[in-house]
Amino acid sequence: MEDWRKVKRAVFARHSNPWSMWTRWASAPLMLVPVWRRSWRDAGLVGLWMAINPVVFGKPADDRAWSTRVALGEEQWIAERPMDTAMAVNVAATAALLAALVAAHQRRAVPAAAATALEMGLLMVYWNLMARYYDRNGDVS
User: Fold this and answer.
1) Which has the closest alpha carbon to 60: 17, 22, 21?
2) Within a 10 A sphere around the Cβ of 106, how many other Cβ atoms?
3) Rounded to 5 degrees, what angle do the CA atoms 135, 97, 8 make?
4) How far is the C-alpha of 7 from the C-alpha of 130, rounded, in Å?
5) In this predicted model, what pLDDT tens digit does every residue of 45-94 receive, in sequence order?
6) For residue 82, what are the domain limits?
7) With contact defined as beta carbons under 8 Å apart, do 136 and 117 qualify?
8) CA–CA gap between residue 12 and residue 20 (Å, rounded)
């Protein structure tokens, strides 16, 4: 169990790089491409990007960047999993993503785009809550 915590800590340390956070957020629409195109190859490429994104960028020098505090706050929040507003926002963002994927499967561009925009907007709300969570709890790594 201790080894898993070390791995998780190492991943979040690198994922807290602003480049990692913002490129992952901007990549959200890419998740619809394999579904729209019905392409396993595209699914593999998008899946690979989503898997390596948290570790491809180096650890940031400090926690001054808002997006860095978001990732570090999320790490803390995941460990505690409080039933709070962030949980509700996270569930709503997941529901929006699922709606976007269904619309992509049906090849309905406007609903897919609208649901993706909603999901990305809800992620910004969630990120704000995670940054506040980190600011309240401080660096407890």
Assistant:
1) 17
2) 12
3) 45
4) 21
5) 999 999 999 999 999 999 999 999 999 999 999 988 888 999 999 999 99
6) 2-137
7) no
8) 10
Q: Whole-angstrom Cα distance, residue 86 to residue 55?
A: 24
Q: How many CB atoms lie within 10 A of CB 40?
A: 10
pLDDT at residue 34, rounded to an integer? 98
How many CA atoms, within 13 angstroms, populate the side-chain half-sphere of residue 86? 20
Q: How far apart are CA 101 and CA 111, in angstroms?
A: 10
For residue 140, CA distances in Å to 73, 130, 135 come to 10, 14, 11
Cα(32)–Cα(77) distance, rounded to whole angstroms?
28
Count of domains for the chain: 1
Identify the three-state secondary structure at position 86. Answer: helix
Task: Identify the CA nearest to 131 among candidates 71, 78, 75.
Answer: 71
At which residue do the structure tokens 């019905």 appear?
38
Q: Which of 116, 125, 113 is nearest to 97 (CA)?
A: 116
Residues 86, 77: contact at Cβ < 8 Å?
yes
Task: Give the pTM.
Answer: 0.91
Angle subtended by helix axes 18-26 and 2-15, to nearest 10: 80
